[in-house]
Amino acid sequence: MLDLFLFLTPVLLLAIVALLGFVGCYQNVTYTPPALMHVQTVVASAPANTNKVTAGPLALTGDELIVVAVQWSSASAGANMPGLTGASFSPVNGGGPFVWYPIDVAHNMMVQIFSAMNPAGNLQLTVTASLLQESTVPWNLCVSAYAGVDENAPLYSPQNSKLNYVGNNPQTPPINIGSGDLVYAVAFAANSDGTFPGNNSLTAGPGFTAEFPPITNPLVEDGNGSNPVVAQVTNANTDPDAKGFIFAMGLKSAA
């Protein structure tokens, strides 16, 4: 029996050493957050004289940042703000509502940005925007999902082009972004007489990618370009009096 114990001792010591090495390696493992990346964008349009539009479902994995842009018409004399379902959305600080331009004496063209976190483990997300009063113009709901954001402070430096901008190249003031961060932007254009979407097709600015190519007005884009980043789009409409608007903000990486 003693001889058997002596024979097995080296084998047991090797097993113990290997186990200790494994435990040591496990203790030294550090979690590296995933890189910030665009997951999916859906743009849904509704005709004039309606008060509800739905976008989705988006195919997700959970814990994504959801950014929503809504464009609609509102009576000048009273608020007609959109309500959102699908997640716990809040208005983005510095994200409007913007009075882009007056449609007529009684209505304004409006844009507002919202955000929320997709709950952990939620694999699909459908977003619905509702208005108390019908929009008098075609209106849009833009929903984008991003993975790898800093959940504690996902957004920063909101910027927008000049309200009532006229021309074919609306752009924001420069945005200084950190390493690994992205700039999210959404842009709109209308004819000189205020007709929306009119004869206006938008293309992404330098260093940006259009994230929902089937619809070019509105146009959702993101990128990082050269720091500081100027978010911009180009309107194919050569009318120098066409109307344009763009909003942009930084998305902070968790990495």
Notes on the structure:
The protein is mainly beta and 255 residues long. The chain has 2 domains: 1-30; 37-251, no CATH class. Helix content is 11%, strand content 44%. The chain has 1 helix and 16 strands. The strands form 4 sheets. Strands 1, 3, 5, 6, 7 and 9 form a 6-stranded antiparallel sheet that branches. Strands 10-16-11-14-13 form a 5-stranded antiparallel sheet, with no helix packed on it. A 3-stranded antiparallel sheet has the order 2-8-4, with no helix packed on it. A hairpin with a 4-residue loop joins strand 6 (98-102) and strand 7 (107-117). The termini are far apart. Mean pLDDT is 90; it is low at 4-14, 16-20 and 22-27.
Large-scale geometry: globular
Oligomer state of the chains in this structure: single chain
Contiguous helical run count: 1
Distance between the termini: 57 Å
Q: Could you name the ranges where pLDDT drops below 50 across 5 or more consecutive residues?
A: 4-14, 16-20, 22-27
A few lines on this structure:
The protein has 255 residues and is mainly beta. It has one helix and 16 strands.
